[in-house]
């Protein structure tokens, strides 16, 4: 470990709408900062090399790998985790659809999966199943076989589109 | 009183309905509690120094540099851990001849695979532990390696464990009838060589343990990501020299397991030992490279097989020579011989034939140990069997469906004993196949395939029938001497407010165990499922049980829940009868109320009964039993295993220019007996299918000739992702087991059992007119292009 990793850096950001100030080691990953320093254990570390998507969080409006971003890079950013998205109610319909369709089993991929899907749903419209599958290809799920997740996303997109049209 | 499952209008009819999982809302809100989420006061972290060599003696270990790292607390060598932790041996008495040397928590003197833990570094943070681990200097002296399976027993191959004499861990030959005689005279004999690749489970949550030895209480508490808490309790107690009663294993949320988390891992045992030595909580969570190099691997088999058929396509004989290499040790305590043993037990499973020979040869090598992974042995046996049947059909010019119809056990022939000496209580091969053909419109698909063939589009249809072993009795592990319970228990309690708590020995890893148990208890007592709280995964709290593996949760744990719920119902009605001055038989419980059984008239809500029993017991006649807690256990006894059956179909397209296979659709009809929650069963099937599809198309652990793991990241070991997976149609036939009132058999492994064979047969169906054939999984574009002769170097 180089000395630069041990350097501590002051950061100020908002997490789930709340201001946070912290002094973090330069080598601290965003997902570790959220989990270890803020107790936001809803974000999961799955592979820690940017493939599985379990650590996906929202940074300045975009779905980001929490294991590929340093906490120091989040200085000044607006970060949302599943805890905050839940509390704000913006994905309640999606969460309900996941439960109704059993689009989760062990639940480990689910926080990252929901955060990625939120990004897709925010684009509006009703995506084709192939488009949903393509969008989810940054999020591994080893339990469900994906079909239930695709069903849940499709049903929410359709319901939102109908609601928007009404 | 028995439950009339045939009547959908019966009261409290929750068994057979899709009800939501009580734990799902928690998980979609980020409120799960996995081991890594738990933080304890004074908790330390351990990181392991792992062998970079496949085989090497361990010389001097220099920890001076590592000790300088800020935050490092202690560093342990194998010899130091061995002082408090005894080694284990992964053998079972009923697997005759199985041998394996003693294995330590940390390697002592010699490391036998890349990734074997050698030194443990404990620090105040994981980052510090990892930093220091990188500075530990171990003096290794490399030894000759054994990496090739088929030459492992050759005279000039070095012997991996000198004390074992040779590299043979286990061999079993099963012979029934006259295979050689029949093969010599049969109308057709077709042979093939099959290969299944080395896989691993890739649970999204890595293996994890938090161990907390409390010297004041003389108790070890561990939080484990495991499928079998009581088994872990026994193992930790045995090897750390503690009374079993002083080890408590807690299993909260588990982020995927698929068999990976039902085994004993050296680094996890070492973590518990370190907690005992340091008298403080110690956490270990594997990183992803550690997952690939130390989670159990599976399915590394090579099989030479033959089938003999008569002119009408009747199977006369099957001959299977299976080889598998299990790494450096047989895994404790379930052993690494079970998979090969299953191949012997399961080949030819769906078919009524007389002459069968199967041998499995299990050898040691310097690689990560292999052990039981979802559908243990089934994907291999089904690929061999169904591959042979399709090859025979092609040789005879017969439709793949027709040859199966001519050979599958008739649906009315049960009970039967197979040539592998497996006992089948009741299966539904023909009904399942018929339903499958209807769901997929087989004739329509064949017409579409033929039409597209004319346009140069090569599509294939593959069928795979299978049997699945579920609800194991002690014949699986107990008779071999392992303290792994085949029995399971459930305690159901009514609290003063009329709500129920069910404590079960089976565990939840996302299958929906808790939903299934809540439905059964709700129906058994007579309340709605949301009035039932289910508690699993705590050895100090739940009845003793085996946990969740071999598709036993619903069949064994579910029946225990039903019987305890029925007993509680009886106990409630006995008190109610005394209160209401009515015979208990004239009363029933419906939707949380005691009612008149005949008229349905409400007599008393359960919360009123609870109020009186718990707070005004003085008003009840003296001596009236008021035991609102009931426990029952269940174990199967008539059959060693409850076999299920099913059949899958794959429809796919092969791009003959690129070798890429596109999965278009997949079907599965299976028979797991009584279905408790249709949605949960369907999703188990779908998830299982996709795990099987991964093995068919993508998954393969690669080693070089020196035993170096070549693909230890998620970018290099490919698992199915959403874009490549098809939609799946799932159908059911229900043949309940008569061993239990519930009638449920297992469903968790059926998808994985049959999917690879269905894909293999579909690819070969597409390639056949072009003269190509593939039998070595995964069916990568390269292998397909080689089969087509497009790559020849």
Helix content of chain B: 25-40%
- The overall pLDDT average of chain B reads 97
- Quantity of strands of chain B, as a count: 30
Uncertain residue ranges of chain A? none
Give the C-level CATH assignment of the largest domain in chain B: Alpha Beta
Cα-atom radius of gyration of chain A:
17 Å
The CATH homologous superfamily of the largest domain in chain A is named: Beta-grasp domain
Q: Strands of the largest sheet of chain B, in order across it?
A: 3-5-1-13-10-11-12
Structural notes for this entry:
Chain A: InterPro entries: 2Fe-2S-bd (IPR002888), 2Fe-2S-bd_dom_sf (IPR036884), 2Fe-2S_ferredoxin-like_sf (IPR036010), 2Fe-2S_ferredoxin-type (IPR001041), 2Fe2S_fd_BS (IPR006058), Beta-grasp_dom_sf (IPR012675), Diverse_Oxidoreductases (IPR051452). Chain A: This is Carbon-monoxide dehydrogenase small subunit. Chain A: Keywords: 2Fe-2S, Iron, Iron-sulfur, Metal-binding, Oxidoreductase. The complex is a heterodimer of chains A (166) and B (793). Chain A has two domains: 3-85, Beta-grasp domain (Ubiquitin-like (UB roll), Roll); 91-165, DNA polymerase, domain 1. In chain A, 41% of the residues lie in helices and 16% in strands. Chain A contains seven helices and five strands, in the order αββαβββααααα. Chain A has helices at residues 3-6, 30-37, 82-88, 92-101, 110-122, 129-135, 147-165; strands at residues 8-15, 18-25, 56-59, 62-65, 78-80. Chain A has a five-stranded mixed β-sheet. Chain B has 793 residues and is an alpha+beta fold. Chain B has three domains: 24-32 and 487-634, 2-Layer Sandwich (Aldehyde Oxidoreductase, domain 4), CATH 3.30.365; 35-143 and 206-254 and 260-294, Alpha-Beta Complex (Aldehyde Oxidoreductase, domain 3); 374-468 and 640-787, Aldehyde oxidase/xanthine dehydrogenase, molybdopterin binding domain (Aldehyde Oxidoreductase, domain 4), CATH 3.30.365. Chain B contains 19 helices and 30 strands. Chain B has a seven-stranded mixed β-sheet with strand order 3-5-1-13-10-11-12, with helices on both faces. In chain B, strand 16 (315-325), helix 9 and strand 17 (355-363) form a beta-alpha-beta unit. The chains are: A alpha+beta (166), B alpha+beta (793). Chains A and B meet through helix 3, helix 4, helix 5, helix 6 and helix 7 of A and helix 1 and helix 17 of B.
């Amino acid at each position: 470990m180089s000395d630069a990793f041990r350097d501590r850096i002051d950061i100020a950001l908002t997490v789930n709408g709340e201001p946070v100030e912290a002094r973090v080691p330069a080598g601290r990953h965003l997902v570790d900062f959220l989990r270890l320093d803020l107790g936001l254990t809803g974000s999961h570390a799955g592979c820690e090399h940017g493939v599985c998507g379990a650590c996906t969080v929202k940074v300045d409006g975009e779905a980001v790998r929490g294991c590929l971003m340093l906490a120091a890079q989040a200085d000044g950013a607006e970060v949302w985790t599943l805890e905050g998205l839940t509390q704000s109610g913006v994905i309640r319909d999606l969460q309900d659809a996941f439960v109704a369709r059993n689009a989760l089993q062990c639940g480990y991929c689910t926080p990252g999966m929901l955060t990625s899907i939120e990004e897709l749903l925010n684009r509006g419209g009703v995506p084709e199943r192939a488009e949903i599958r393509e969008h989810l290809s940054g999020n591994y799920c080893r339990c469900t076989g994906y079909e239930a997740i695709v069903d849940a996303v499709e049903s929410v997109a359709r319901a939102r589109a109908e609601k928007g049209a009404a | 009183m028995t439950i009339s499952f045939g009547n959908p209008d019966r009261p409290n009819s929750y068994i057979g309905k899709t009800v939501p999982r009580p734990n799902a809302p928690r998980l979609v809100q980020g409120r799960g509690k996995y081991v890594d989420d738990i933080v304890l006061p004074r908790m330390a972290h351990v990181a392991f120094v792992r062998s970079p060599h496949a085989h090497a003696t361990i010389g001097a270990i220099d920890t001076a540099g590592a000790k300088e790292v800020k935050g490092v607390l202690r560093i342990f060598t194998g010899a130091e851990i061995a002082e408090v932790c005894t080694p284990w041996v992964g053998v079972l008495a009923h697997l005759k001849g199985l041998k394996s040397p003693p294995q330590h928590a940390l390697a002592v003197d010699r490391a036998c695979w890349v990734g074997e833990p050698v030194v443990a570094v404990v620090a105040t943070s994981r980052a510090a532990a990892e930093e220091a681990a990188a500075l530990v200097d171990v003096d290794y002296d490399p030894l000759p390696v054994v990496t090739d399976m088929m030459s492992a027993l050759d005279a000039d191959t070095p012997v991996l464990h000198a004390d074992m004499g040779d590299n043979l861990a286990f061999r079993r030959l099963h012979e029934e009838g006259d295979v050689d005689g029949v093969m010599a005279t049969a109308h057709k004999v077709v042979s093939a060589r099959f290969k299944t690749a080395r896989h691993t489970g890739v649970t999204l949550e890595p293996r994890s343990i938090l161990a907390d030895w409390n010297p004041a209480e003389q108790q070890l508490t561990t939080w484990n990501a495991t499928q079998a808490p009581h088994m872990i309790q026994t193992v930790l107690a045995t090897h750390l020299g503690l009374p079993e009663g002083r080890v408590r294993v807690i299993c909260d949320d588990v982020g995927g397991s698929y068999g990976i988390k039902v085994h004993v891992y050296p680094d996890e045992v070492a973590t518990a030992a370190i907690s005992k030595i340091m008298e403080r909580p110690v956490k270990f969570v594997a990183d992803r490279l550690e997952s690939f190099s130390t989670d159990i691997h599976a399915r590394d088999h090579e099989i030479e097989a033959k089938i003999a058929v008569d002119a009408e396509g009747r199977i006369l004989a099957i001959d299977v020579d299976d080889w598998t290499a299990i790494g450096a040790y047989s895994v404790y305590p379930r052993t690494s011989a079970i998979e090969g043993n299953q191949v012997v037990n399961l080949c030819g499973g769906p078919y009524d034939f007389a002459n069968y020979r199967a041998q499995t040869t299990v050898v040691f090598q310097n690689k990560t140990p292999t052990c039981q992974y979802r559908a243990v042995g089934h994907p291999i046996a089904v690929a061999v069997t169904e591959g042979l049947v399709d090859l025979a059909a092609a040789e005879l010019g017969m439709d793949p469906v027709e040859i199966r119809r001519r050979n599958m056990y008739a649906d009315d022939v049960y009970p039967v004993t197979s040539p592998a000496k497996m006992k089948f209580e009741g299966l539904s091969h023909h009904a399942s196949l018929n339903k499958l053909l209807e769901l997929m419109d087989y004739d329509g698909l064949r017409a579409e395939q033929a039409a597209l063939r004319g346009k140069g589009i090569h599509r294939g249809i593959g069928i795979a029938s299978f049997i699945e072993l579920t609800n194991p009795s002690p014949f699986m592990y107990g008779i071999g001497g392992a303290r792994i319970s085949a029995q399971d228990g459930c305690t159901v309690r009514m609290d003063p407010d009329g709500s129920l708590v069910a404590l079960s020995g089976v565990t939840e890893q996302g299958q929906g165990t808790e939903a299934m148990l809540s439905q059964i208890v709700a129906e058994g007592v007579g309340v709605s499922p949301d009035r039932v709280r289910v508690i699993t995964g705590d050895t100090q709290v739940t009845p003793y049980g085996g946990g969740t593996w071999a598709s036993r949760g619903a069949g064994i744990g579910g029946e225990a829940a039903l019987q305890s719920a029925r007993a509680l119902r009886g106990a409630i009605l006995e008190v109610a009868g005394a209160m209401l001055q009515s015979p208990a038989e004239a009363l029933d419980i419906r939707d949380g109320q005691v009612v008149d059984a005949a008229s349905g008239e409400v007599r008393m809500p359960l919360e009123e009964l609870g109020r009186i029993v718990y707070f005004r017991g003085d008003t009840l006649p003296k001596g009236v039993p008021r035991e609102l807690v009931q426990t029952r256990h269940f174990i199967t006894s008539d059959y060693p295993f409850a076999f299920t059956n099913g059949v899958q179909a794959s429809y796919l397209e092969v791009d003959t220019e690129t070798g890429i296979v596109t999965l278009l659709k997949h079907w599965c009809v299976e028979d797991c007996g009584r279905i408790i929650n249709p949605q949960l069963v369907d999703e188990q099937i779908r998830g299982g299918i996709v795990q099987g599809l991964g093995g068919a198309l993508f998954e393969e652990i690669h080693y070089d000739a020196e035993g170096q793991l070549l693909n230890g990241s998620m970018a290099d070991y490919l698992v199915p992702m959403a874009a490549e997976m098809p939609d799946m149609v799932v159908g059911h036939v229900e043949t309940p087991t008569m061993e239990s009132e519930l009638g449920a058999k297992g469903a968790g492994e059926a998808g994985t059992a049959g999917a690879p064979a269905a894909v293999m047969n579909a690819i070969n169906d597409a390639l056949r007119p072009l003269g190509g054939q593939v039998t070595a999984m995964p069916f990568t574009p390269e292998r397909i292009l080689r089969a087509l002769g497009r790559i020849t170097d």
